[in-house]
Amino acid sequence: MNFDLTPEQDQLRDAVRALGRRYGHSYFVEKAKSGGHTTELWEEAGRLGYLGVNVPTEYGGGGGGLTELAIVCEELAAAGCPLLLLVVSPAIAATVIHRHGTDEQRKRFLPGFADGSLKVVFAITEPDAGSNFHRLGTVARRDGDDWLLSGRKCYISGVDEAQYVLVVARTEDAATGKLKPALFLVPTDAAGLTWSKLDMEIVSPENQFLLYLDDVRLPADALVGGSLDAGLPALFAGLNPERITVAAMGVGTGRYAIERATEYTATRKVWGGRSIGAHQGVAHPLAHAAVQVELARLMIHKAATLYDAGRDLEAGVCGNMAKYAAGEAAALAVDTAVQALGGAGMTTEYGVATLLGAVRAGRIAPVSREMILNFVAQHVLGQEKSY
Ligand SMILES: Cc1cc2nc3c(=O)[nH]c(=O)nc-3n(C[C@H](O)[C@H](O)[C@H](O)COP(=O)(O)OP(=O)(O)OC[C@H]3O[C@@H](n4cnc5c(N)ncnc54)[C@H](O)[C@@H]3O)c2cc1C
């Protein structure tokens, strides 16, 4: 058993931490409140190779694994910049294309993931299907060599910033019964693709959208893997990277909140000479949150290590557990930090209440805590499936 990062991973952690701190939470919040995007941070991280750490070197990437990408997600979040697009683009989309794309799709897309110049967002959720992906109603039908895609998607993050959307659909002849997904790379400027912004109670420069696909015409090579049989394994390939990186973001956010709070409570004095952090009523909840965050962090390391060793099934169990634990720990840490700061906790200036919406959403998306508990009950505890 080894709990140490390699020297290269340590260097990556330090370098990403330094970059994140240079931008910081006030940059993130200012972009969110002015309707902007974190373009400068994304582009700089891309130039420095941090967004492509998990892309193979032959395509210009860092040749690392999910461990490296999780480090990038955690450290940017720990600096107050939790970037959701890291989860959808380099974690989900790049992995799907790397593992299940055709040679031509790898050559075409992976270099853009390697330097961050390409953003591909991910669209699976639908209004009438929700957590039940077997009910997906977005349909792809053949028209000569082309495909025509029609359907609706909801809560899709970052469409306005991306060049492509990776759309999960089903073919016309597989319109009922168990999902046989087909994944398509849809350019965001394709005719027939439109979107409208959802008003969300989350302070973030990354937004969610309703997506409308009305007979979007796509060439044959838009189908990931070039074959309908590639759909299901391609969809599954994205799940572990998604769970693990979103968990890393949660842990980073939890660390950020605890750091803000402990800086404050160590120096704030309202009862004579001792800091409020000397009072166990203030310090213990923070210590409890720190324990939860660190436990989630351990599970992320285990999940990423298993994934990078090619042990996908075990990584799936640990990745789900890590995502659950990190979602709970992040929500606890931010809420506890707000309380420890008192009134200052609710101000924009102290930069913790600004994360309340994001960490609350982290218990719902990209997979809800209940669906993870269903997975654990079924696959770890051997219980009958209820749905
Ligand atoms: C900030 C944010 C960003 C998102 N970004 C994306 C994105 O980029 N791309 C994308 O495709 N989607 C995205 N989503 C959607 C997200 O993945 C879904 O919201 C999530 O999967 C839950 O689906 P739902 O909202 O339809 O909830 P529903 O499926 O309607 O569920 C509602 C509630 O019921 C519970 N529930 C449902 N079924 C069961 C069951 N069998 N057992 C126990 N409990 C159950 C759920 O856990 C949940 O609490 C995003 C959502 C948010 C909030």
Helix content: 40-55%
Order of helices and strands: HHHHHEEEEEEEHHHHH
- Helix/strand-derived category reads alpha/beta
Gyration radius, rounded: 21 Å
Largest sheet: 7 strands, mixed
Task: List cofactors, ions and other ligands.
Answer: flavin-adenine dinucleotide
The average pLDDT score comes to 96
What general form does the structure show? globular
Q: Strand fraction band? A: 5-15%
Number of helices: 10
What's the count of strands?
7
| N-to-C span | 38 Å
Low-confidence stretches: none
Describe this structure in words.
- This protein has 387 residues and is an alpha/beta fold.
- α4 runs antiparallel to α5 (103-115) and α8 runs antiparallel to α10 (369-379).
- β2 and β3 (146-157) form a beta hairpin.
- The protein is built from ten helices and seven strands.
- The chain has helices at 7-33, 39-47, 66-78, 85-100, 103-115, 231-267, 280-308, 312-341, 356-361, 369-379, and strands at residues 120-123, 139-143, 146-157, 164-171, 181-187, 193-197, 208-218.
- Helices cover 49% and strands 13% of the residues.
- Strands 1, 2, 3, 4, 5, 6 and 7 form a seven-stranded mixed sheet that branches.
- The chain starts with 6 loop residues before the first helix and ends in an 8-residue tail after the last helix.
- Residues 88, 121-125, 130-131, 155-157, 202, 208, 361, 364-368, 370-371, 374, 387 line the site of flavin-adenine dinucleotide (FAD).
- It comes from Micromonospora antibiotica.
- Residues 122-199 form the Acyl-CoA oxidase/dehydrogenase middle domain.
- Residues 6-116 form the Acyl-CoA dehydrogenase/oxidase N-terminal domain.
- Belongs to the acyl-CoA dehydrogenase family.
- Keywords: FAD, Flavoprotein, Oxidoreductase.
